[in-house]
Amino acid sequence: MSDTAFDSSVYPLPHLLGIEGLSPVDISLFLDRADTYVEMNRKRGVMLDTLRGRVVINLFFENSTRTRTSFELAGKRLGAEVINMSVSTSSIKKGETLIDTAMTLNAMHPDVLVVRHASSGAVKLLSEKVNCAVINAGDGRHEHPTQALLDALTIRRRRGQIDGLQVAICGDILHSRVARSNIHLLNTMGARVRLIAPKTLLPAEAERLGTEVFYDMKAGLKDCDIVMMLRLQSERMESSFFPTLREYYHFYGLDYEKLESAKPDALIMHPGPMNRGVEIASDVADDIGRSVIREQVEMGVAVRMACLEVLCNNLDRAQGQEHKS
């Protein structure tokens, strides 16, 4: 089973390194294509041969069960050969530089590299040294484009559109690449974005990101359509950003009392993994009527299938142009 009618020629880039700079047309291309995979993924045993003969390498310098597994499943459902490289046991741990790694992988002629790295900009650097497509699966505090796309797909399928929605992003915005990618995407697609966090967890440029900034949850959540909670990234915190976890939850953890300020049908989101009782109350996270946290995970596979397909089709087009010249 394959779909040969799809044309990704409107996507102008060889890689997906971030949301910043993408147009509404670019973003809609990924969302529209991902939409076609959602129902297919709900049927057991359905596999495509769209990417048969393609090689996808998952290169994760940081641990991520959720994202890596999602990319692996996406590639296999499209018929690609998927290789997961374990950085902890590779030459990279033995002192090999990122450039050396890029040259080594390039010699293996993969079609797509999916890369996660702890340093902002590392994925872009690697993309400049290889001849294949590169997808950013999260680099430092910079961006996590496929997470923003799956969040957008979740919202669009539930609300029908993104334009005009009031979206609150709450929590550890300072350390969050998810927040940055979502801010770029939501602004580009016409949503109004609010950031809610203690001053210590807001980036210095928060006011210049095209958002409203709030330090109080109830004020920030007033009349919001979407409430997007973020994980406290303690592994990136080199000093104390708040007194205690208990105090953080008291002021910034999402519970039903704070949620009353949002619209009655406001959707609750979280990129995971969740710290229950710190960022969000368990009963709110598990609210069947309002929480779409499990849907976000499901949308992730469809979005990553779309990204792999779009970029591989661009490779085909580029190769075709080379042959003509």
Description:
- The chain has helices at residues 24-41, 65-77, 98-106, 122-127, 145-159, 177-188, 217-221, 245-252, 256-259, 282-285, 293-324, and strands at 55-60, 81-86, 112-117, 133-139, 166-170, 192-196, 212-214, 226-229, 267-269.
- It starts with 23 loop residues before the first helix and ends with a helix.
- Helix 1 (24-41) packs across helix 5.
- A 5-stranded parallel β-sheet has the order 7-6-5-8-9.
- The longest helix has 32 residues, at 293-324.
- It has 11 helices and 9 strands.
- It is 39% helix and 14% strand.
Short description:
The protein is of the alpha/beta class and about 325 residues long. The chain is built from eleven helices and nine strands. Helix content is about 40%, strand content about 15%.
Helix content: 25-40%
What's the rounded overall pLDDT mean?
90
Structure classification: alpha/beta
Tally of helical segments: 11
What fraction strand? 5-15%
Query: How far apart are the first and last residues' alpha carbons, in Å?
Result: 32 Å
Low-confidence stretches: none
Q: The biggest beta sheet, please?
A: 5 strands, parallel
H-E string = HEHEHEHEHEHEEHEHHEHH
Rounded to the nearest angstrom, the radius of gyration is 20 Å
Characterize the quaternary organization of these chains: single chain
In one word, what is the shape?
A: globular
Q: How many beta-strand elements?
A: 9
Order the strands across the largest sheet as they lie in space. Answer: 7-6-5-8-9
